[in-house]
Amino acid sequence: MYPILFKFGFLQIYSYGLMVALAFWVSVSLLARRGYVLGLGRDFFWNLSFWALSGGILGGRLMYVLLNLDFFLKDPLEIFKLWHGGLVWYGGFIAGLLSAVFYLKRNNAPILKTLDLAAPFIALAHSIGRIGCFLNGCCYGRPVSWGVYFPQHYERLIPAQLISSIDLLAIFIILRFLEERPHRPGSIVVYYLLFSSLERFLAEFLRDDSARNFFGLTIFQLISIVIFISAVILWFTTLRFPRKT
Q1: Gap between the Cα atoms of 72 and 164, Å rounded
Q2: What percent of the chain has pLDDT over 70?
Q3: Checking phi first, is residue 182 left (phi over 0); if not, alpha (psi -120 to 50) or beta?
């Protein structure tokens, strides 16, 4: 809708990149303020988040390129033009999580407790980032008469990005509520996986930017199903009914 927010001569401020940066700054700032819960300083969480963000951008971009390989083979330089948008959340989440775990193990920090603390703010960052998707015009919804007009697509579309942003903000609020209550280490992460995978599965029915080649479902809905089932199994086997020692 507004891919470029401002122009100052040759300098252009892209809405997608600006919202990603804002999502990172807001979420990490709030997370760092919560570091006292684990006795960890603010610098620790900024460093952790930098590792997660770096891995997340690489993983998210790699998955997007692989899913749109024909386009990037025609113009390989587009791979590096992140300001045009093009990050797949699941690719970014998996790579970012692996990067974060590596950093935590390297610094002998409690992995599950730290991830529990961070999980709500991942949802918050995702919520803010979806606004960038709306401004950029990516992750668009299906055509409807009552939708928002997107000049790039020359039609009215469901504002799926904004709906997803509101849903993710609700997940953030729920997770923060659960985090304040007594819980087993790792449970907040499991709840995040349950809620976020369900949100993405349902959101795909509103979106129109992915092929439905799997019994009417998109590849992201299949990934969501796998993550949701895995989280349910993890909840029952390790959290709901922990092993006796």
Answers
A1: 27
A2: 96
A3: beta
**Structure-block tokens of residue 13:** 């401020």
Residue position matching structure tokens 């989440």 = 93
pTM over 0.85: yes
Q: Are 119 and 174 in contact (CB under 8 A)?
A: no
* Residues 6 or more apart in contact with residue 171 via CB below 8 angstroms: 120, 123, 127, 192, 195, 196, 199
DSSP 216: T
Q: Residue 166 pLDDT more than 60?
A: yes
- pLDDT of 74 strictly over 90: no
Distance CA 128, CA 98 (A): 22
Rounded to whole angstroms, the Cα distance separating 183 from 108 reads 22
> Which tokens is 63 given?
């998955």
Which residue spans within 158-200 are E strands per DSSP? none
Place of tokens 């949701």: 228
Residue 16 CB neighbour total at 10 angstroms:
26
C-beta atoms surrounding 24 within 10 Å: 18
